């Protein structure tokens, strides 16, 4: 244990490749956590008697991860009927899960990379394949973050449209047979921030490529060749 602790090199965290890894760690957590912890709801008031001025029953529909809205059908009893369903049309789970999976994998990879930087920095500096692998994985994650963020942004737009009052009335039998009034709309600020975090991750992971490329032998060999040409 003492030998491992003696090899700890925290100075690498002051370098761009190490400091940006910390940013990747933070923003990866922010991206997937804002999706998985999301909760919102919408509320409708229904008149059992259309001639009555006051609403007589209240329905509440929940919106939670993984947003398999069309598979979640909450049953309510109202107006002497026990099988009213309240749901949102559309299944947005595949893009949401893809986005979360990319965030979790990125988070785990950054942990491994930081451990490599701090405890096995000599291996990183002396083995040409390690910096190349780090650079290649960053390219892959930058592409994954871009694809996942675009897909999730598109699904979030669909989810917001599906939870509009007119669409809820259109696809729920209770509003087809009885007058419905809008009371509470879902709030998607947290999910909008998740999309922003996703594209911030695209920027951060892409920005780090230059600093990681400088650690590879391709860059070092090119600089050495330029120095030789200059001396000649």
The residue fraction in helices comes out at 55-70%
How many individual β-strands?
A: 5
Spans with pLDDT under 50 lasting ≥5 residues? 1-5
State the order of secondary-structure elements, H for helix, E for strand.
HHEEEEHHHHHEHH
Report the structural category.
alpha+beta
- Taken from the alpha-carbon principal axes, the silhouette is rod-shaped
Strand count, sense and closure of the main sheet?
3 strands, antiparallel
Number of domains: 1
> Strand content of the residues, in percent?
5-15%
Concise description?
Pfam families: MARVEL (PF01284). The protein has 232 residues and is an alpha+beta fold.
Structure description:
The two termini are 50 Å apart. Helices cover 62% and strands 14% of the residues. Helix 2 packs antiparallel against helix 3, helix 2 runs antiparallel to helix 8 and helix 3 runs antiparallel to helix 5. The chain is α+β, with helices and mostly antiparallel strands. The protein has one domain. The relative contact order is 0.18. The strands form 2 sheets. A 3-stranded antiparallel beta sheet has the order 2-1-5, with no helix packed on it. The protein has a two-stranded antiparallel sheet with strand order 3-4. The chain is built from 9 helices and 5 strands, in the order H-H-E-E-E-E-H-H-H-H-H-E-H-H. The N terminus is likely disordered.
């Amino acid at each position: 244990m003492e030998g491992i602790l003696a090899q700890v090199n925290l100075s690498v965290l002051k370098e761009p490749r190490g400091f940006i890894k910390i940013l990747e760690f933070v923003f990866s957590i922010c991206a997937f956590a804002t999706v998985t912890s999301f909760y919102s709801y919408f509320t409708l008031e229904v008149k059992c008697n259309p001639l009555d001025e006051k609403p007589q029953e209240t329905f509440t529909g929940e919106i939670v991860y993984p947003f398999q809205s069309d598979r979640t059908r909450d049953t309510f009893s109202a107006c002497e009927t026990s099988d009213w369903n309240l749901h949102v049309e559309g299944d947005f789970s595949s893009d949401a899960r893809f986005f979360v999976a990319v965030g979790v994998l990125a988070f785990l990879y950054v942990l491994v990379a930081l451990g490599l930087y701090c405890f096995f920095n000599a291996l990183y500096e002396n083995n040409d394949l390690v910096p190349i692998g780090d650079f290649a994985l960053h390219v892959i994650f930058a592409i994954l973050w871009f694809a996942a963020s675009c897909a999730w942004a598109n699904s979030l737009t669909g989810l917001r449209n599906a939870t509009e009052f007119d669409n809820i009335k259109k696809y729920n039998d209770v509003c087809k047979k009885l007058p419905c009034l809008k009371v509470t709309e879902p709030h998607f600020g947290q999910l909008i921030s998740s999309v922003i975090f996703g594209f911030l991750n695209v920027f951060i992971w892409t920005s780090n490529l230059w600093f990681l490329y400088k650690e590879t032998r391709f860059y070092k060999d090119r600089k050495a060749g330029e120095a030789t040409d200059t001396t000649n």
